[in-house]
Amino acid sequence: MLTRLHVACFFLALLTPAFEPLYASSEADEARIRHHSFTSRALDKSMAYTAIVPEGYDESRGDWPVLFFLHGLGRNENSLTDDPTCRQLLLRQPYVIILPRGEGGWYINSPVNPAARYADYLDEVFKRTAKDYRLSTDPARRGIGGWSAGGYGSVQTVLRHPGAFTALATIIGVVDYPREDTPENPLKFAVITGVFGTDPELWQAYNPLLSAKELQNVDVLVVIGDRAFDREMNERFVAELEAADVPVTVAHVPPGHTFAAIEQGLPYVLNFMRAHITADRN
Fold first, then answer.
1. Which of 264, 249, 252, 258 is nearest to 226 (CA)?
2. What is the CATH classification number for the domain harbouring 234?
3. What φ, ψ does residue 69 adopt, rounded to 5°?
4. Tens-place pLDDT, residues 117-169
5. Which among 95, 105, 87, 92 has a CA at the least distance from the CA of 40?
6. Burial 22-33 (b: 16+ CB within 10 A, else e)
7. Global pTM?
8. Closest to 142 measured CA to CA, from 281, 280, 278, 282
9. What is the extent of the structural domain holding 188?
10. Domain for residue 282, yes or no?
11. pLDDT digits over 173-212, tens only?
């Protein structure tokens, strides 16, 4: 009988990306990257998202698999499509990819700033794209992920919407945060009090690590940057998932908490999602 470790190693081998040479994108390829803006009721201002549709996308079909992928702090909905390597990887996928704008809101409704309703904004994106891009409502065909603060936001979104996604993938995610900084367990990334406030007891309700056991019925991929400040928090997150018997696959990339880690981790995420949201799992 295969042990869980053997299964995880076998699955990771399937996901290990083959780094194919870059190719020149055609005009038809570029036309599959679509930029949108709308007035968010949650935030009371214009917000944006970018969509990438697969080759052969047919608007008459009503069950397209989808990956929502959330950017980190200091980035935006076009950071991946502006990068030639990432753009070409995204264009090769057989599912719709939605890249929301997150600004500095961490994709949550701030407990201390009533105007910062970024979880509600993200829900608006879910509703708009479901209609505009004919996205599947079947959880088995829906995935979400992100990097850095977007990794945090993707975990929080799955926790807010239990049963809505089949797969979750993070790259250098800030997943044991916010919390107190202690000598035994240094935080290495200051709590942004304008989003999370100053009360450590309040922080507990917003720390994904403390709710990891609730990620049942979701397959999780955690991409760890070997030189990243968040390596230890991701290792703790993985340990919590394993203790709760949540299916988790781990991949490592050499860089620290940099965009290079995103470039190297993205193929793992995209292959993971291809295996989960496009496969016939019956």
1. 252
2. 3.40.50.1820
3. -130, 125
4. 999 999 999 999 999 999 999 999 999 999 999 999 999 999 999 999 999 99
5. 105
6. eeeeeeebeebb
7. 0.92
8. 278
9. 4-277
10. no
11. 999 999 999 999 999 999 999 999 999 999 999 999 999 9
